[in-house]
Every structure is written in structure tokens, then in C-alpha cells.
Amino acid sequence: MKNEPKKSSNVPYIIIGVVLIAVLGVVALGTGLIGAGWWISNKSQQTANSANRPANSTAAARTPQAPVNAPPGAQPPNLLGSPTASVTVEEFADFQCGSCAAAHPAMKEIQQVYGSRIKFIFRNYPLAIPAHAKAYDAAVAVEAAGMQDRNKFWALQDQLFVNQAAWSPPSANHRQLWLDYATKIGLDTARFQSDMAGIAAKTRVDQDLARGKALGVNSTPSIYINNQPVPFPDVNVQSLRRIIDAELQRAASAPANTGTGTNTK
Amino acid sequence: MPVLKIIAIAAALAGLADSVYLTIHHYTAEPVPCSIISGCETVLTSEYAEIGGVPLAALGAAAYFAAFSLALLATFGNRTAWTLFGVQSIIMAAVTSWLLYLQASVIGAFCQFCLISAITSFTLLIVYIISMLLQRKKAI
């Protein structure tokens, strides 16, 4: 009789032990700490496979009609490459968006790889959500930098994405940090501050926003290649190169159609 | 009473499963685009998602595991465990309230899996309060 309660009193500890082992096992497998390298690699393989999809299938998945009625956005646009290139890559991004910062190196690589063979346009698209309370001002800041020198736009844009984790949290003194970045890239900080407060930079941001809204942009980063949206899973160097190469090839084989990449409709 | 403890065990296990999922997600999530319909990514990638480098979700999993263990021990007759469960459920509900405040006021976004955790956490406290009330009734 005395043994029975003892036996039963062990039961909860056994159950606790089993649950603990199960939890640790699931966490270890799920995070790839043990044995589940195959699961993680399978997942990456799937991502890679989606990246390896032929450009045509991507093209097929894209919205067929070009947004002809969309306003042109800020003019002149923040542009890299050649304004007359047959392929236009247009990025809508938000400086407080983690995925935009994550995509930034890929966008830079695309700019470097293709150079003047493409027209790369950056559009400000600060999302009006409480978590991105600094995004609109950040967009105004890069436009203010661009008002001093177009190259400074790209330099500050780079700084804001690279240092996003530092200035983006609610507790960070973002204005001071932006001034530090402005100094670092050689901006006239007095003029930078006055341009940030002025109407011109804000107008440019609003113009980009209006274009994005007309195109139906509701998330960032949103990439358009020759006015066709690129699905988010394809926002990586490999997939973007595949799509751009296909568009370049298409433009080369049909010279009459060149110029479709204009984003200033 | 055993029914209440079984409910507590079930709620703790649900919270544990949710926290384990969030912990795994914390380490393995693929980036998703930022959306005007703000969601989990905002919450799960906020500066509040970690405390001293430890994901909040992992701390939650540890808390739910402790709650599960205490409720289980209590079901097998350990009264001290049930008292400890009560103390823990109060602390967990307080932390949950703070996290809900952060999501609503500071981060400005809610995460559905964090809300599931909030429900399970409050369930633990409610179960404990009901068990105390029933105990008092019995005593009277």
C-alpha cells in the first residue's frame, strides 16, 4: 500500500521529463541545432528553387497590364544607371522596414552588376503605420540630402539602411543620428536641416507615395521591373538577375519595343 | 478541482507549444515584406523581442513549462506546487499585460501568436482564481 503512492508520485516527474525532452528536441530540430540540417537545407533549397524558376514563369505570374495611369513620382527620380536603358528597375522602400534593409545589399549588387544597362529608380514609400513613425521623416531626410548633391542621396540612403537598427527603435535619437550620418557623408548639415524642414523634399516624398499608391503598393520592398511587380520571394540577386536578363534579352530581340521601361507615365 | 488543474495543464501546454513555435520562428524566420496591415514581423523583430539576447518567446516557453510542471504536480496532490502555480500565474499575467501594452502603445502592432500566449496566460490566472474561490466556498 505504501509503495503505491510512491509509484504514482513518480508519474508527474516522468511526464515532466518527457515533455521537457520533447520541447528541447522540437526547439533543437526546429532551429537546426541538431540533426535537422536537412530540414533547414530543404527549406533553403526550396527558396533557391523558387529563385531558380525560369524568368518566364515569373513573368507569367506578374500582373499583365502596365499601370499606365500612375503618376510619375518625384521628378527627376532618384536614378542610377542610364535614363535611356531598356530595362527599368523601380524600388519602393521604407527606411524603417527590416525587409527593405535586408534587400538593400541585393539592390546595390544589381546596380553594380548592370550599371548603365538598366535604369534603377528608388522611390520613397514610407508606410503609414505606427511602428514606422520615423519612416516618412527618413524619406524626407534622404531627399534633403539629394537636394545638395544627387550622390549624397544614395550615400544617406545607404547609411539609413545599414544603420537601421541604431536609429529606428522608438528610444533612439534618430535626428541626432541622421545628423551624424550627414556629417559622415560630407553634407552641409545646416542646409540639410533646413532642407528637411522645407517643402521641396516633402513634396518629392509625397509624389513618390502617390505613384506607389496608384500602382497598388501595399508592402515594402516592392520592386517593379519594366512596370511589372516582382513577387517578394523573387527579391534576391539571383531571381532579379534572371528577370532583368530576360527583359534585356526581350528588348534586344525586339528593338521596336525598347523604351517600355519608362516609369514616367 | 482536478478539472481546473487539467484545464491549467492544457492551457500551459498550449502556451508552451505557442512559445516554442515563436522561439523557432525567432531564429529561422525568412524575411517578409513590411505591410500596411502591420503584423507579426513588426512585433517579433522589435527591440522588445529579446531580453539580454534571449528571445522573449524562449522565456515564455520556460515559464509555460514551469506552469505545466507545477499544475501537473498539483494534480497529483502537491499543494505547494499549486500555490507556486498561483504565484507564477500572477507574474505571467502581469508580464502579459505589459507585453500587450507594448504591442498596443509602443510597437503599434499586434502579433496573433503573441495574443494566443496572452489568452493562455490569463487562462492560467483565471483557473487559479476560480480554484481559490471554490476552496474558500468549501471551507465556509
Describe the structure.
The complex is a heterodimer of chains A (265) and B (140). Chain A is an alpha+beta fold and 265 residues long. Chain A has 11 helices and 6 strands. In chain A, strands 1-3-2-5-6 form a 5-stranded mixed sheet, sandwiched between helices. In chain A, α3 crosses α11 and α5 crosses α9. With 140 residues, chain B is mainly alpha-helical. Chain B has a single domain, classed as Up-down Bundle (de novo design (two linked rop proteins)). Helix content of chain B is 78%, strand content 4%. Chain B has 5 helices and 3 strands, in the order αβαββααα. In chain B, strands 2-3 form a two-stranded antiparallel ribbon. In chain B, α1 runs antiparallel to α3. Chain B is elongated. The relative contact order of chain B is 0.19. The mean pLDDT of chain B is 84. Chains A and B meet through α1, α2, α4 and β4 of A and α1, β1 and α3 of B. β4 of chain A pairs antiparallel with β1 of chain B, so a sheet runs across the interface.
Radius of gyration of chain B: 16 Å
CATH class of chain B: Mainly Alpha
Mean pLDDT of chain B: 84
Distance between the termini of chain B: 16 Å
Secondary structure class of chain B reads mainly alpha
| Rough outline of chain B | elongated
Q: Biggest interface, and residues per chain?
A: A-B, 41 and 35 residues
Order of helices and strands of chain B: HEHEEHHH
Number of helices of chain B: 5
How many helices of chain A in DSSP terms?
A: 11
The largest β sheet of chain A comes out as: 5 strands, mixed
**How many strands, what sense, and barrel or not for the largest sheet of chain B?**
2 strands, antiparallel
Topology-level CATH name of chain B: de novo design (two linked rop proteins)
Percent of residues in beta strands of chain A: 5-15%
The overall number of domains of chain B is 1
Report the β-strand fraction of chain B as a percent range.
under 5%
Summarize the amount of helix of chain B as a percent range.
over 70%
What percentage of residues of chain A falls in helices of 4 or more residues? 55-70%
Low-confidence stretches of chain A: 1-7, 36-66, 257-265
Poorly predicted ranges of chain B (pLDDT <50, ≥5 residues)?
none
